[in-house]
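Submission sheet (multi-component)
Chains listed below:
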Amino acid sequence: MTLAELLQGSVHEVAAGLVGWTLLVDGVGGRIVEVEAYDEDDPASHAYRGANARNGSMFGPPGHLYVYRSYGIHWCANVVCERPGHGAGVLLRALQPTHGLDRMRDRRRVADDRLLCSGPGRLTQALGLSGADDGADLSRPPFAVLPPSAPSVVERTPRIGISRAVEQPWRYVEVGTSWSSRRRRAA
DNA sequence: CTTTCGATGATCT
DNA sequence: GATCATCGAAAGG
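Outcome: structure written.
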């Protein structure tokens, strides 16, 4: 399976399928363990009300990045999906760091490696992503997206930090990971 | 341990 | 003027 082949599917197939892949930026990154799907006709999606100056890359070619500023402070990154005439993407929420740990620690300055990439804003900071990367093609350097060696077990939960369509289970997390943005609550 | 709240800027109403 | 796909420090229990 190549990234281009995975991107042929629906936003939800792409989101679930991306879990376990490795994302690298200039050789720095890790395994994708948590994402969220933002589909067309999704009130929580930035693309819901059509294209604007911020979300334009969501309406561009699949396999590119949509990077936006969040709460005026952080950057968040999506993988753009193929939805002709609409905008859709998969928000990258957490990685299990595997490559370039030293560079990530330099950028993040946190005591615990668990905090390097466990959140959409943390992830972009660790990888050095910013608005300059909005629209960038993930199939070309300095980016690399590598398939997993074995399939992951993925669970669906409601998405985090939104106020519309809050009950849709469109967050995809690798079962058993300790690198997601939220630890599983005790039962 | 949990909850609250400020930062900060683009977009929406 | 309000909201927001967030984070981290501070305050409370």
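Remark: Residues 46, 49, 52-54, 68-69, 71-73 of chain A lie near DNA strand B (CB under 10 Å from a C1').
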